[in-house]
Each structure stands twice: as C-alpha cells, then as structure tokens.
Design brief:
The complex is a heterodimer of chains A (about 140) and B (about 550). Chain A is built from five helices and four strands. Chain A is an alpha/beta fold and about 140 residues long. Chain A has a four-stranded parallel sheet, sandwiched between helices. In chain A, strand 1, helix 1 and strand 2 form a beta-alpha-beta unit. Chain A is globular and about 35 Å long. The model of chain A has no long low-confidence stretch (mean pLDDT about 90). A five-stranded parallel sheet of chain B has the order 10-7-6-14-25. In chain B, strands 16-23-17-18-19 form a five-stranded parallel sheet. Chain B is globular. The model of chain B has no long low-confidence stretch (mean pLDDT about 95). Classes of the chains: A alpha/beta (about 140), B alpha/beta (about 550). The interface between A and B is large, with 47 and 52 residues.
Chain lengths: ~140, ~550
C-alpha cells in the first residue's frame, strides 16, 4: 500500500470552512487525507496546536483563512495567522523540520475549487516528501 | 460539568448523499465503541422532524448529556440540532457536529472505503470534542431604544424615519451642512422621471418635523466604543465634541462620484461634462438649447483594473437623459457609446427600447480601443471604433457627457475602523453575508444600506434602508438580547499581565483589572480567539473552542482512540 500522509486542517468558520463546504456541494473530488478542525478564525490557531499535531504524527498541517486584507470576519485575524505561521516556519527549520509541511492558504467561501486544489496539491506534495521526521523526534522524546 | 459524559451519536444517511458512499451502519457500530458513547443510531434524514424527535427521545431514554450528529455542515444545520437539544432539556453548547457529507461523502465519491474510514475518524474527532464540552450561559444585555443613523441622504433619511415610525429615538449625523445627499444634485430619477426634489424634500421635511429624530449637521463620527445595545459614539459638530448613547447603528453614508480628470478630455476640452453635471444643466435650463449633437461615453473610468466593479446606475441614467434630450428636441443627435449596456430588470430594459425608438444611437466601443475626445472647431470631436461595424466613426459634437462611476467615500476607511466593520476590495462597506445577512454587519448591532454598501439606484437604496431599519428595530424592540457564549476566558492563575492580548484585540474587549491581569468583557468579545492564540502563558482559551477541545480533536484525527 502506498504511503498516505495524515493532514490536520484548521479552517476558519467564515471563509475556508465554507469554501470546503462549497467544494462538497460542487462535488469537487480531492484525496481523503485531510481531517478538518473548525475554528472561528484562522487567528485562533495557537502555534502549540500546530506543533502538537506534528508531535502526534501529522505529516502536514493546513491553516486556512479569509483572504487578506479585508475578508476576515474579525477584521485582521487572518493577518495574525499569517505572521504566526511565518514565525512557526522559521522555528520548524531550526527544529530540523521541513517547513513545507505547514501550509497557510487563503480560501474564500466562494472558492470551493481552490479548496479542492489546495488539498490535492498538499497531499501529493506530502506523498512525495514521505513521512514527517517529527514522528521520530516524538518517539525519541518518549524514550 | 462534573457528571460523566454520556454521549449519543446520530449518523445521517442524508438519503443517498451520505449513505450512497459511506457505510453508515459501519460508522454507527464504530461510534458505539468510542469512549463515553452510550448510544448511536442511524437515520435516513436526521434533520427531518422524525429525526429530531429520535434525538430527543434518545436524550431522555439514555440520559444523554452530550449529542453528536454526523451529517452535513454546522454552518447550516447546527442551529436546528441545537434547538432540538434545548427542547429536550440540554444546553445548546453540549452539541457537536461531524461534517461527513460536504467534507467527506460528496468529495470522495469514488473511494467509498476511504470515505467510510474518514467518516469514522470525523466522528471520532467530534466525540473527542464532545467529551470536553460544557454548558455555557449566553450573556444577556440591555438594548437602548435609540438608533444612530450615519448619513443624511435618501438612505439615511429613510431609515431614520422608519426607526422613528417604529417608536425609537434617532440621532442622524450628516457631514454636510444640509440634509439630502446626492439627490440634491440630481434633476430627475429613472424610471418614472419623477423630480429628485419631489422624492427627497418630503423626507427632509418629515425628518426636520419629527420630535424623535435629532439631526446633527456638519458632524462626523470621531469615536465609537461599546457594543450592541450600548454604543457610546463620539461625534464632532464643527469641532465641538458630543457623546451619543445609542443601541444600534445604521451606516448610510452614501458614496461619491469620480471626477474623471484627464479622461476623454475632461478638464481639458470645453463642453466635456459628467452625467451629474448634465443633471445640473437640466436643473438650470437654457444652456442645452444650442446643443445639436451630444455623445455620452459609458464606463468612463470604471470596469477597469483600478475599479473593476460596475456602477449599476449609469447605463439607465444615460438612457434616461438621452431620451429626455431627444424628446426635448427631436432634431438632436444623441449617441451613447457603451461597452455592455446594462439596463437590468423589466422597467429599465423597456427604457432601452424607448431610447432606440426615440432615435438615440447606441454605439458599442471596444475596451482595448477606447474612444478619443479632442477639441474640434465646433465642440468636442469624438472618434470611436465600432467593433460591430469594424469601422471608426468621427462625430462632431456640441457636448460630451461622461458616465463616471460611483466611488466609495474617502471617509469609509476611517469609519470602518471606528465601527470595526469591514470594507470589500472596492472599499465599499461589506455586509455579513451577501445572501443570508444582507443588511447586517458581522458586528452585532450595526447595519448597512444605500450606496455606502455598493452602487445602487434610489429605489434599491430605499428598500435596503427600510430593511436595515427593520433589522435594527428587532433588538431594540426586544430590549434585551442573548449574545453568543463563544468568548474568551482568562485563567488568572496563569496570566502574567503582559498585555499582548490587549494589544491584539481589535474589539478592545480586554482590559487590565485592578491586579494588572487581563480581563475580558464578554459582551464586547466577538470570539475570534486571536487573544487565545497569542497568549504566551496559554492563559486564555475560548468558550466552546477551548485549547483542550482543539487539541483533543487534533489527537483524535491522528490516532485511533
């Protein structure tokens, strides 16, 4: 059996979760590797939630929110997510992780097609990259 | 909740929408084995009255204190299931959904086995969250029965009068020194050709006469504090500050017209004017008598990269004015140069037929090869390439009229910051949802109408103004309101008082208490969770989206229970 990456996705309620719903309503097919956690805003996602997902065996984490600068339901939560993800990517590099495993995307409620494309691309990319090394780190930590 | 969780899981077939791709009985059986799940059942349509009744019966029979429905999206169906839970005596915050249709069966239609596996793990994630859910109280707040209307044009006047007619006090804030707005500058309105003054003057008169409406001219909103029910709005009237205490706010600030400097000879060639200036010439009378040939150019400065949107009114306005010009003098040659003539709806498309019958000449032009206007001997000279004729026409005119776009007010930026409401990419005010909540902002208690929201004609502005006033009237008539319990909570034992959350909260919902620790005003908090995600001590969490709940979902996504 081919390697199937596990992806955790934090989707904001107003844009990206709605975009994912639209992908469904439109029957756009994408790989079944993503597990969605609904949050009210992409700005709600604490770096610890993302690191925790990697520690628990995620091969990729997707954070998706409303398009900057103006679509955010909460004015600027998306911009905070953007800065946080940028910081976290630097941290991931320092930890010896491939920062491409963390992906930030803007998906509006009207972009069902984009959502399906993002999930497909991300899944394929992670398949090429192979399992995340963080899993090995987590095991080492437990020892 | 100190009691042990007793979770019921209800898995929906949604006809064949889920059941056709996901093995529902298998998911039900799987759910039965999850921790704290005491009962699970399938249903053909969980949202049917039969399905809801089954949930309520199971709540009683199995003493359920948490409910998970695995079906469609919470964005449409959560309120329905929550109220079913409430009717059965449960708090609505002990309910959770797993979206196994929109985000599973519909998007993995060719992989039923994998779809079933994913549905199981989505149910596992929902159960993991449900185990941690606790009942929440929705805070109740008082609503002051006074509305603020910002803008004294046709939309603002209409909504102010509507609020007054509903029995509320109204403050009307207008930045100019007189009421009336854009309609003061127009001669007639399509499609009935009624005089603009006959529409706007009675509204102004009624507002001035109303004892319930307080008009503030020459005034601007300088500061807004508070939340639905109790906004404290600082205004400045000719430099004098004043504080208004209101319960709701309607944004009716209107829009502006582009002054098309440099376009098609405007400001350079004599007798190149805008439609607004033509309206003024109509009002003054006389100056158009010598005009034998007139060319109107549509989309003058709009539907381009800088302003991609359509201003909606200019085509019909041009048609209206063109008909008027040829009817005044049938010997007049009137041309409308257009890209796409958008006279939408029955009445307006009838006007287009009228114009053609009256002899108005409609000439399509090419976006890639725009018309040119230069100074001629007699008046402006227009050269236009018609893709339909594949020919360039040269028209000697007495006057060129540019249909310049409606543009957002310059003050929109500042007002959107004061009110904490968004603008769209064209810098007009953006409603909460284009279809489901077209009159509200996402921020409770603030509503929008008229051209502040988007270019629209007078009848549309009036409808929207009345709608906004109705929306604003609902909480004010009730007097009290329950607000969502999804707000942030500070664990004072962990808070170090660093103030990061205070800096980041765009709603000013967090302040420092007397001990220097973060303190949330729940009624102001919108529940975005930015504070929770930024707290270095992880001292802040969100009700109903707690750190523990999100991490339990994440763990359940990755590992079998």
């Amino acid at each position: 059996m081919s390697y199937e990456p596990k992806i955790v996705g934090f989707l904001c309620n107003w844009c990206s979760y709605a975009g994912a719903d639209l992908a469904g309503v439109s029957r756009f097919q994408y790989p079944p590797n993503l597990r969605v956690i609904r949050v009210m805003c992409s700005g709600r996602v604490h770096p610890a939630h993302i690191l925790e997902a990697f520690r628990n065996g995620a091969d990729g984490v997707l954070v998706a929110g409303c398009h900057p600068p103006n679509d955010c339901h909460y004015i600027s939560g998306n911009l905070k997510a953007k800065r946080r993800v940028a910081m976290l990517k630097k941290l991931m590099i320092q930890m010896g992780m491939d920062e491409r495993r963390l992906r930030l995307e803007w998906v509006s409620a009207a972009e069902g097609e984009k959502f399906a494309r993002v999930v497909t691309e991300f899944t394929n990319q992670l398949k090429e990259m192979g399992p995340a090394s963080m899993k090995a780190m987590a095991v080492a930590e437990d020892d | 909740m100190s009691e042990e969780p007793r979770i019921g899981v209800f898995v929906c077939h949604c006809g064949i929408n889920i059941g056709g791709y996901v093995d529902v009985p298998d998911v039900v059986e799987y759910a039965t084995g999850l921790p704290d799940v005491v009962y699970a059942e399938p249903n053909l349509y969980m949202c049917s009255s039969d399905g809801l009744q089954k949930i309520q019966e199971a709540i009683k029979k199995y003493e359920l204190n948490r409910v998970v429905v695995a079906s469609c999206t919470p964005r449409t169906h959560e309120p329905l299931f929550q109220s079913a839970c409430e009717e059965a005596g449960l708090n609505k915050y002990v309910f959770e959904m797993a979206n196994i249709r929109d985000q599973c069966s519909w998007v993995h239609m060719h992989e039923p086995e994998k779809a079933t596996q994913k549905a199981k793990s989505l149910v596992r994630m929902a159960v993991a969250k449900a185990r941690l859910l606790v009942p929440e109280e929705e805070p109740e707040i008082d609503i002051r029965p006074t509305g603020l209307v910002i803008g004294g044009g046709v939309s603002g006047l209409t909504s102010a009068l509507s609020l007054a007619d509903q029995g509320f006090k109204v403050h009307l804030v207008e930045k100019e020194d007189r009421l009336g707005g854009t309609l003061l500058k127009l001669d007639t309105l399509f499609s009935s050709n009624v005089k603009a003054s006959e529409v706007i003057n009675p509204l102004i008169k009624r507002v001035k006469a109303s004892t319930d409406v307080t008009v503030h001219l020459d005034s601007r909103v300088a500061d807004v504090k508070g939340f639905i029910g109790s906004f404290d709005v600082g205004i400045e009237t000719r430099g004098e500050p004043e504080m208004l205490s209101v319960g709701t706010i309607i944004v009716a600030t209107g829009a502006d017209y582009l002054s098309p400097e440099g376009l098609y000879g405007y400001g350079q060639v004599d007798n190149v004017v805008t439609q607004m200036e033509l309206e003024q010439l109509f009002k003054e009378g006389g100056r158009l008598d010598g005009v034998k040939t007139l060319v109107m150019i549509q989309c003058a400065g709009s539907r381009n990269e800088e302003r991609p949107y359509c201003s909606r009114v200019c085509c019909t306005e041009a048609i209206k004015n063109a008909i008027k010009l040829v009817k005044e003098n049938p010997k007049r040659d009137v041309y409308i140069l257009y890209r796409d003539l958008q006279t939408y709806g029955i009445e307006f498309s009838m006007m287009e037929y009228d114009a053609k019958k009256s002899g108005v000449k409609l000439v399509m032009y090419d976006k890639e090869r725009l018309p040119e206007v230069t100074g001629g001997k007699r008046g402006p000279m227009v050269r236009v390439y018609s893709p339909l004729l594949d020919e360039e026409l040269t028209i000697e005119t007495d006057m060129v009229v540019l249909s310049a776009p409606i543009i957002p007010n310059e003050d929109n930026e500042a007002l959107s910051k004061h009110l904490k409401v968004p603008l769209n990419s064209d810098r007009f005010f953006m409603e909460a949802h284009v279809k489901l909540r077209p009159l509200d902002f996402a921020t409770d208690g603030i509503y929008v109408c008229g051209t502040a929201h988007s270019p629209k004609e007078v009848a549309e502005s009036v409808s929207q103004a009345r709608g906004a006033a109705s929306r604003a009237g609902i909480p004010m008539a009730k007097g009290r309101l329950k607000t969502a319990a999804i707000t942030s909570v500070v664990d004072e034992a962990k808070c170090s008082g660093c103030g990061t959350c205070i800096e980041l909260c765009v709603y000013n919902a967090i302040t420092k208490n007397e001990r220097g620790l973060a303190q949330v005003t729940s009624a102001v908090c919108k529940g975005c969770g930015v504070c929770g995600a930024s707290c270095p001590e992880r001292a802040i969490t969100m009700r109903h989206f707690t750190n523990e709940e999100l991490e339990a979902q994440g763990l359940a996504a990755l590992k079998e229970a």
